[in-house]
Model the fold of this input.
Amino acid sequence: MKTALVIGAGPAGLMAAEELARAGVSVTILEAKTSPARKFLMAGKSGLNLTKDEPLAGFIAAFPDAPKELRDILADFGPEKVKQWAQDLGQEVFTGSSGRVFPTAMKASPLLRAWMGRLDGLGVVLRTGTRWIGFEGSGVSIVSATGKDVLTPDVVVLACGGASWARLGADGAWIDFVEAPCVPFKPANMGFVCDWSPHMQRHFGAPVKPVVLRCGGHEIKGEFVISARGVEGSGIYAVSRQMRENHPLMLDLMPDLNVAALTARLSKPRGKNSLTNHLRKAGLSPVKIGLLREVGSDFTAQAIKNMPMPHNGPRPMDEAISVAGGLSFDALDADLMLQSRPGVFCAGEMLDWEAPTGGYLISGCLATGHRAGRAAANWANNRD
Ligand SMILES: Cc1cc2nc3c(=O)[nH]c(=O)nc-3n(C[C@H](O)[C@H](O)[C@H](O)COP(=O)(O)OP(=O)(O)OC[C@H]3O[C@@H](n4cnc5c(N)ncnc54)[C@H](O)[C@@H]3O)c2cc1C
Done:
């Protein structure tokens, strides 16, 4: 029996391990942490968004600048396959109004439990507390509580994740010893720093909604949250790539009214109302009024519908939902094998792609894990 090492027990590594085991390869997963898939479990805390139910072209377009190799991989293992995979693990899924797909249980733990059980049934061995620390000749150097060792499997899949939420395992340390061209990591789907004046304190935790966010030619209607540190939440994440590239962010705080309708509301006699009450009666929530004051805006309809939102750059990368950058696709063949190291395949967030939240991240990890695992199995099984 051929042997495979999969390094990293996140969704990408587990998917690669399954494909290898199904092809008759003896698989050991090495995981640095003491338990598998910690980030995947964390993702389930706020509702595990597995994929996006949308036509394939739109789905693939959500991965900006994806090279042809990645587009083909996503086409091979798209949203329908992701849903089927979850259902095969006994997890019913539902599609929310925005097309986001979740397991009915919402959490990741039942799905992970079923998946680990299935891998166990396929004979996959999970070795936790074991860290890959580099290559040694044609072998793989590892360290665990029992010391250092060099392993020489027939084939390897690297699935070590990106470089955010290091405490869950994805510390990005591998970039220093992977010995292949990498694009520097950048935060993706992250919050931004704002140095609020004291009067904003009362709005910490308040959602700004509905709001339209415009940045770098990208426009989205959604919501975001004011926090002590700045702004965060789905609306901000959706334009975070453009914000990271220094395009100014503009907000329409009253997206459901046009300028004329809003002007009509604002022009109603104020009577004895304070300005704040007058604005509230026009439909602006306290947090929106606070934001307008914070940026020194006036209260005309034009200003309310086109408010610049200054910030001081991204929050630290470790807080980001995901990262851009990682192993360059130039370092890989179409089957995600390292050109410089035949027999070593790569998958998941450690590859240089980025995508918004909305299920695209886990889908991208499953799709690349599927391709890397299948190709690794072919490579191992067809070699003497
Ligand atoms: C708060 C939060 C919520 C999220 N919600 C969603 C969501 O709802 N939908 C979605 O699509 N995505 C979501 N994501 C993103 C998603 O969880 C990740 O994109 C995905 O887990 C990445 O999978 P991966 O297998 O590539 O890497 P990871 O899940 O990071 O797994 C990599 C594994 O490799 C191990 N490892 C690293 N280095 C080594 C080494 N040297 N030796 C051995 N093991 C190593 C790590 O310990 C880790 O277990 C969320 C992320 C966060 C932080």
Summary: The longest strand covers residues 207-215.
